[in-house]
Amino acid sequence: MRRDAERVFDEYLAAAARAGDRGAFGRLASRWQRKLLAHAYRLTGDSELARDVVQEAWRDIATALPRLKDAAVFPAWAYRIVTRRAADVIRRKQRDRKIIAAYAAEPENNVDQRAEIEASADGGALNKVIAILPADQRATIALFYKEGFSVAEIAATMEVPAGTVKTRLLHARRKMRAALEGGISDD
After folding, report:
1. pLDDT per residue over 139-185, tens digit each?
2. CA atoms within 13 A on the CB side of 2
3. What is the DSSP letter of 69?
């Protein structure tokens, strides 16, 4: 399917699900689960935490979908819900010092785990380069290049000004260029 045809199909599924069609909602969920999981992982850096975030997000999506006025904005709307849920989870983690200490003691996820989750959702050769970026830049780059979101859509999704999106893209591109020119090791 062409990219535009996929967006139209998703818009149809969102409209049908909004009207109460459970089959359409199930199909919409199966089409978007991987993408939303990859986005949550980009934001949290933890695969289990990302799964929890997406599960909570789907509950919110199911509850609020009947109130969504324009089915065409479903992608940005769903990503925004995941972004909010991820931010909520991160804030909760920051408030709980015991969890922060336990999290800091755990080894950081390696590039192979990040690449595996990214590859299952998106595929592509740049996954290792994207995995080295900070979470906000990783999410912004992925939304812009992998999902085809505009700067305005990313700004709405990430709840930041458009200028911040542009700055994140600029810095992420510089870091990616430097990593590609310097080579990426497979350690």
Report:
1. 898 888 888 889 998 988 888 999 999 999 999 999 888 887 776 54
2. 3
3. S
Question: What is the structure's pLDDT at 77?
Answer: 94
| CATH assignment at residue 127 | 1.20.140.160
Range of the domain at 153: 3-182
* Burial per residue of 3-27, b for 16 or more beta-carbon CB atoms within 10 angstroms, e otherwise: eeeeeeebbebbbbbbeeeeebbeb
Answer whether 93's CB lies under 8 Å from 99's CB.
yes
DSSP annotation string for 98-156: HHHHHHHHSPPPPHHHHHHHHHHHT--TTHHHHHTS-HHHHHHHIIIIIS---HHHHHH
Number of domains present in the structure of the chain: 1
Q: What pLDDT, in 10s, does the model give residues 6-56?
A: 888 988 988 998 888 899 999 999 999 999 999 999 998 889 999 999 999
Residue 153 lies in a domain: yes
Tell me how far apart the alpha carbons of residues 149 and 180 are, in angstroms, rounded to a whole number.
24
Q: What is the mean pLDDT of residues 73-98?
A: 84
- Within-domain flag for 187: no
pLDDT beyond 50 at 60: yes
CA-to-CA distance for 181 and 20, rounded, in angstroms? Answer: 51
Q: Which contacts qualify for 147-150: CB closer than 8 Å, 24 or more apart?
A: 147/35, 147/75, 147/79, 148/3, 149/75, 149/76, 149/79
